[in-house]
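Sample entry (442 residues):
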Amino acid sequence: MTQKLRIKGGFTLKGEVSIGGAKNAVLKLMAAALLAKGESKIHNVPDLTDVQIMLSVIEELGVKTKYDKQAKTVTIDATDITNITAKYELVSKMRASFIVLGALVTRCKEAIVALPGGCAIGERRVDFHIKGLEALGAKIKIENGYVHANASKLHGADIYLDIPSVGATENLMLAAIMADGSTRIQNAAQEPEIVDLANFLNAMGADVSGAGTSEIVINGVKQSDLHPIEYSTIPDRIEAGTYMAGIIVTRGKGIIKNVLPSHLTFYNSKLIKMGAKIKLLEPTVLEVSCKQRLSSVNIVTQPYPGFPTDLQSLAMAMLTTADGVSIVTESLYENRFMQVPELRRMGADIHQERNHALIRGVKKLTGANLKASDLRAGASLIIAALMADGVSEIESIHHIDRGYENFEEKFRNLGADIIRFDDSLPQVDISTKKGTYNEASI
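Predicted structure, serialized as tokens:
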């Protein structure tokens, strides 16, 4: 099945949208549930491809799982773990699944986890994970594409990360939960998803402090101290930022519900400098609007609380029609300008040199046939297509499905003319209130 998106641009987005659970948080909570014997429940879990992959990884370990899509609840019964191997066939589909390494090492004292391999947005090394585990007392051997970790006894340690890696911080947090003594992770990642993981672990009976700062301290506890829990994950700040971008570039007005504004402070400040208006209606509700052409701004991606790399491609799409010249610098990943060639095909004036992109705002973009290269690049093409003249078709949308639940339905509810279709099926003419399309049976 070859599914694509067809978007007719030029419609102003208005209305309300509710944000789902954070993909980058819930995947790690699922791995953390392996630490406690018994049945844990995680609420506010979005129906995403990545969630399904993580469920498959966990089930391969002999753990019982259940996903109630209607209730948005995942149940993980980790009473028994009968297999300590996470196979390449699954880990290679989603790098985040590598986090089961830390959970298996501390719970089972042994783990065999496939190296995740390459990534469309650039190299993401696991050296920091390995060195940190070794500091905790694990013996690591890498062969045949797998990390073999043995840890008959883990002990607390001071670990300094050369860069504030989110994945390494999370893996080491899990590994240190049952280590003897205290572990201190310095230059730790500070993302909200790290805080959510710490809150989950503490509710389970762990002793973690400092999450959200550059130094996290984990005091080891016993297996018997840990117990299964029910927990609801935080809202997805990247999803929220995506719908905000769609409303702003179409000069609309909308309400974003179930969002934590403090998670988007830097992003929101840049949107306001561009010319958007953002009003806090309630603690978890924002009103977003824009009535004029956006202004140019310069953006440099940085670890949290700086400008999020996951929102860089969306910001670039917004700036393609802004008044003036903008410079976007990607400081975290060497290959995260995958959207640039596609935006150029829509008429964007972008000059790229290594990790810098100079964007001269044009009057308008025009619809084109496009291809999503990765999750966030794909999202940026949706934003560009919403404000472009004419019709755009986007292929390889399986990348977008990794991180956005029901995104075309949510955009339609805001007034967008967007459909998903299968171009391998016979097509029939249908008419909509916004135009006539040759839409495939879905």
